[in-house]
Amino acid sequence: MKYIDFRSDTVTLPTDEMRAAMAAAECGDDVYEDDPTTNRLEELAAQMLGKEKAMFTSSGTMGNQLGIMGQTRKGDEIIVSADAHIFTSEAGATALLSGANMCTLHFENTIPNAQQIEAAIRSENVHHPDTTLICLENALANGMVVPVETMAEIYAVAQKHGIKVHLDGARVFNAATALGVPVTELTKYCDTVTACLSKGLCAPVGAVLAGSAEFIKAARRYRKILGGGMRQTGVLAAAGIISLEKMTKRLQEDHDNAKYLAKKLNEVPYLHVNEDAVQVNIVFCDIDKPAEQVKAMAGKLREKGIKIGGYDNGKTRFVTNNDITREHIDLLVKEIQNCF
Questions:
Q1: Which pLDDT score is estimated for 1?
Q2: SS3 string of the chain?
């Protein structure tokens, strides 16, 4: 059975153009830095993200952890949202790999606040760790985006205190699309940035990490330590090039479909979506039915050929992507109603 998959934008399949490019990719050895297709991807990523250099990584998590490893020392402290992927969903990697402490902040409506961040920066005191890095996220995992002005305010605070900023930009091209600005209007307010190619941009594998030439040189060594030297990566980079050149330009379609999905869900009396919070391709829905029925819904939908994410904290998440159409959305809403 071919499933309609709303679980995430990580489930996107590579396009036919990507598959052809992967088959024809010119390859070398990326550990020796002579894979021409990977080199082209990295040059393109650096240009698009407004940084001096970029490096291909196996995943966004690896990119984020390299960003932290390359800008902290053991015992340092990083400031991060309590809702950030780096804190909630990277398996404690920061503690294991960098030995860094996390100062987690709770922001109103999850949008980071420069004043809160500045207040959390440690004073110079023998009892305190050194605050050396602020980790931001844009777009946020809840489907909202951080305004350019907020990014600028936080970066100004960081520069004032001599602190670096890393941006988890897993969906940074979605954020830029939602805000109607070039992606460089966001990335100029960070020192390093990770951008995923394997989410809504449809590449089968990988992310890019960008920053200064000096930083990327150090990060390349850390990547090797983590086992991330992948040799003939041109096969994967070929798809990533198409992700950046073409798939970044179609993300508005996913956003429009997410808004359509939110509207259709809200037409059902026991389904509730905050449509104002649907700013990229992620929709969270409250279902006013007994919890055991809601938890059973995923299994019932799978039997109908539809995959959805789990039921967590009273909400069900749906994510639109390149493989989701309006017809799929109409079918999803119909089959949800058939579950109750």
A1: 75
A2: CCCEECCCCCCCCCCHHHHHHHHHCCCCCHHHCCCHHHHHHHHHHHHHHCCCEEEEECCHHHHHHHHHHCCCCCCCEEEEECCCHHHHCCCCHHHHHHCCEEEEECCHHHCCCHHHHHHHCCCCCCCCCCEEEEEEECCCCCCCCCCHHHHHHHHHHHHHCCCEEEEEECCHHHHHHHHCCCCHHHHCCCCEEEEECCCCCCCCCCEEEEECHHHHHHHHHHHHHCCCCCCCCHHHHHHHHHHHHCHHHHHHHHHHHHHHHHHHHHCCCCEECCHHHCCCCEEEEEECCCHHHHHHHHHHHHHCCEECCCEECCEEEEECCCCCCHHHHHHHHHHHHHCC
Average pLDDT over residues 79-96: 96
* Residue 309 banded pLDDT, cuts 50, 70, 90: confident
Q: Hey, what are 75's tokens?
A: 């015992």
Distance CA 261, CA 266 (A): 9
- Give me the residues paired with residue 193 across strands: 167, 210
Which pair of tokens denotes residue 160?
A: 């004032």
Amino acid in the structure at residue 292: E
CA distance 255 to 273: 15
Residue 82: asked if its preceding bond is cis (omega within 30°), the reply is: no
79/107 Cα distance (integer angstroms): 12
Question: Torsion-angle region of residue 325: left (phi > 0), alpha (psi -120 to 50) or beta?
Answer: beta
Give me the pLDDT at residue 18, please. Answer: 98
Tokens 């960098």 map to which residue?
Answer: 98
Can you give the three-state secondary structure of 18-36, one letter per residue?
HHHHHHHCCCCCHHHCCCH
CA dist 239 and 219 (Å) reads 23
pLDDT digits (tens, 9 = 90+) for 150-166: 999 999 999 999 999 99
> Per-residue confidence at 85, pLDDT binned at 50, 70, 90?
very high
pLDDT in tens, 106-150: 999 899 999 999 999 999 999 999 999 999 999 999 999 999 999
In whole angstroms, give the CA distance from residue 297 to residue 310: 9
